[in-house]
Specification:
It is a single chain. By secondary structure, this protein is of the alpha+beta class. The chain is built from eight helices and eleven strands. The strands form three sheets. Strands 5-11-10-7-8 form a five-stranded mixed sheet, with no helix packed on it. A hairpin with a 6-residue loop joins strand 1 and strand 2. It is globular. About 2% of the residues have low confidence.
């Protein structure tokens, strides 16, 4: 059973050669007529024997590279004939003696102890588990719902709300491991990053299990193809953080507008259900109707695209404009351009106006 779980997608076939990559510490298996199989970073296997005496252990992590990934939208027909890359960013591998009764969480902190990313409810089966950190900050809250959130909302609307309990999550993971993988609506090749990358440097990974924390450091490095100077890297990071904060602010404006509309709609229903309406109600109801109409028009024409799923077929509103400039600054291996910084300033003014 242990070998089966380690084997993964490797078929029952002759293995003619085995090597350990001297730089990446990957296990390389060459099969007879089936190709090359790679197990990324086998540090966990090398340190597993000593880990078994502990309730939980975070294994040493190899340096994580901030790769700049592009060209995800090429059409290669029915199949993409390429090997599967390792999970992006830092590979966080850890051992749990037993599955804990509560959830297992991971936090990543910078050299000053400030938390930059939170990974909640990570894999928590007894044995060796792995999760990846994509070397980015937490996404600003309040953005458009991803596939899982949309599915949960659709289920709730249909009267069958999704089970979000820890046990249900564990059951879904076990089913996926056995081959019944859930489809995801988040695998969008045109979707850009949801948050900026962290600066190169040393970060602390903390695994939280049963009220205790287990820590290890990981070194984040720049893409070796990058020729940016340290000053340019910092300039890109500073602009990226400004755009992250602007994204949060725009999301708050949209959420505030939606909240006011909900309050006014409730007041509207209350006024219409109050027979017989007195003179003050007669005077205020048209004002409420007008305010709701104006706010909905403002939201749909200025703040955010009104129809989900149509994407660029609708002209971009404020939220989409901020997303576009964020993607320009967050993704490439280059400092922000003068045009991008000019548009950033304009979008701050537009957010002030909104």
């Amino acid at each position: 059973a242990h070998w089966s779980s380690l084997r993964g997608d490797l078929p029952v076939v002759q293995v003619r050669d085995i090597q350990i990559h001297p730089r990446d510490n990957d296990l390389l298996l060459a099969t007879h007529g089936r190709g090359l199989f790679i197990l990324d970073d086998i540090t966990a296997l090398q340190q597993l024997e000593s880990a078994k005496t502990s309730d939980a252990v975070v294994f040493d992590m190899r340096p994580a590279v901030r790769w700049s990934m592009w060209s995800r939208d090429g059409n290669l027909g029915q199949k993409s004939w390429r090997g599967e890359n390792p999970l992006p960013g830092a590979l966080i591998t850890y051992y749990l003696k037993d599955q804990p009764p509560g959830e297992v969480n991971v936090t990543i902190s910078d050299k000053d102890g400030k938390v930059v990313r939170r990974l909640r409810r990570v894999n928590d089966e007894a044995g060796v588990n792995r999760v990846s950190w994509d070397l980015r900050y937490d996404a600003p809250p309040g953005g458009p719902a991803g596939g899982a959130a949309r599915a949960a909302a659709a289920g709730a609307a249909a009267g069958t709300p999704a089970d979000t309990s820890l046990e249900a999550l564990r059951a879904r993971r076990r089913a996926a491991t056995e081959g019944a993988t859930e489809a995801s609506n988040d695998d969008n090749p045109f979707a850009g990053p949801q948050s900026p990358s962290v600066l190169p440097g040393t970060y602390t990974v903390a695994l939280s299990v049963g009220g205790r924390e287990y820590k290890k450091n990981v070194q984040v490095e720049m893409d070796p193809r990058s020729d940016m100077t340290q000053a340019q890297v910092i300039a890109q990071h500073d602009a990226a953080i400004q755009l992250r904060d602007l994204t949060l602010r725009v999301n708050q404006v949209i959420a505030g507008t939606d909240d006011i509309v909900r309050q006014l709609t409730g007041l509207q229903d209350q006024l219409r259900r109050s027979p017989p309406p007195d003179s003050s109600q007669r005077r205020v109801l048209p004002d409420v109707d007008s305010a709701i109409k104006d706010l909905r028009h403002f939201r749909d024409s200025v703040l955010a695209r009104p129809l989900p799923g149509l994407g660029y077929r609708q002209y971009p509103r404020l939220r989409e404009e901020v997303q576009t400039v964020s993607g320009m600054v967050w993704r490439p291996l280059m400092p922000p351009t003068a045009g991008e910084m000019l548009r950033l300033g304009e979008l701050k003014t537009e957010a002030d106006t909104a």
